[in-house]
Amino acid sequence: MTGKCDESATPAVGGSVEQGPCSLQNTPMKFPGTSHPSPLLTRSRGTANRTISKRRRHEKSTDRYIPNRSSTDLDMIHHLMMSKKSKPSLPAKTPCKKSDKLVGRCLFSAENAKRACTRLLSFSAKRKLDFNMSECFSSRGMKPQLKMKEETALKILNAPGAAKNFYYNLLDWGVNNIVVIGLKEDVYYWDAAKSQAYVLPQEGGREGDLVTCVRWKPDATKHIVSSRYGTTKLWDSTVCKLVSSHVSPTVYSTSWRDNNLVSLGRGDGTVLHWDIRTPETLHRPFSATSGIICGLDWDREGESLAVGCNDNKVQIFRNTSLRDSETLTMVYQSAVKAISWNPLQRGVLATGSGQNDQRVVVWDLISGNYKNCIDTKSQVTGLIWSPSCNQLVTSHGHFDPNLRLWELKNSVNTAKLTGHTNMIVSIAKSPINDHIISLSADESLRVWNIFAKNNASNKSKLSSSVLSLDKIR
User: Fold this and answer.
1) From CA 310, how far away is CA 313, in angstroms rounded?
2) 78: Cβ–Cβ under 8 A, 6 or more apart, which residues?
3) Using one digit for the tens of pLDDT, what is the confidence trace for 346-401?
4) Residue burial 284-311, b: 16+ Cβ < 10 Å; e: rest
5) In terms of DSSP H, where are the helices of 250-369?
6) Can you list the alpha helix ranges (DSSP code H) found in 200-275?
7) SS3 letters for 263-293?
8) How many angstroms separate the CA atoms of 335 and 293, rounded?
9) For the whole model, what pTM was predicted?
10) I need a labelling partner for 116 at 20 to 30 A (CA). Which of 40, 81, 219, 309 fits?
């Protein structure tokens, strides 16, 4: 039995939620809509070629000194006059605009040069002109359209029983190069170096007690496992032993501030801080929202905690007292699960919202403004910063169960990682080689190499087992 895939299926408890554009609380923000450039007006010239005899032409022309406007090339005249040339030729290599050079090449191409004359005014029949207007417009600052690349996975693993639930966080990749995965009631390790899978032993587990969240400790010596019926366990991965556990409302998301303190986001809208040095002692939980907390992330300094909820808000809490010390609230139009601080730039937070909003917003919390707002056209279930933090990888659910790479400078989608056929529930990045792993409700795990500069060379270095199909169960 798995949860529902739509984040709106679990309504938030409490009053009505503000339904407006994503913004800072009490500071309405206007997000840029999809702007389309004005259409270019292309005028074509030229008529059908026709042969007119000398006699007929003289009969039609009442005065041979009056030029024929229909047969006069005004573009060429203007270009010749502005460039001070007496005969058709390619523009000289003098400092001028690139667009002027392109106009000259179009006007005085080899085919047109045969028909060109040294006179500015024409008294004969109109001649055909081949003029590439779009090439000249593109040289005047209009940005070319970037082609989106399609990438395929380096490795595919079977993951039977993968849940289809927007709120679950079932994947994490530790510095020990081991991936911890939650499938149904079980927890698995996948050793990326050896390409081997192991299952953790069950101790008093209940049937139907599905795993809802897993998270490695920063040094990867221990990890958290939370389940549907409210049990949160701390496992020692070095000896595969249960260290401690406690029962509380269901935990859907976790984040470590450091190697000692972990924050648990619960289904009743509270955040619980747990110091694992004293496993039996828990800090008093504080209320962060009226709904489910589905996204948590501490910043790199351990000073601010970002909390994403299904009441369509993201809240920032300071670390002064580990209590209710809210500093900022962002309002969206859907639940926010995907949250990640920029690891290189202080105060920059990326958020991805659910089915009714479908936007990725990069916030500069120091200035209180957003830096990027991208309409992904799909439910966002996860996001990861690139090593240089100039790109974002997003995973998606409804309408587009793929991963996408976004260039933040222009907010352009530059790559699409295809292969999954159902909602991508969770994604994680390797701290070893920047590979990405994704878990989908199509019961598969896929490893990607999207950040590598040369995918072909990296693929050739992998062992033969990398391209084989492995099973978790």
Assistant:
1) 7
2) none
3) 999 999 999 999 999 999 988 888 899 999 999 999 999 999 889 999 999 988 89
4) ebbebbbbbbbbbbbbeeeebbbbbbbb
5) none
6) none
7) EEEECCCEEEEEECCCCCCECCCEECCCCCE
8) 9
9) 0.67
10) 40
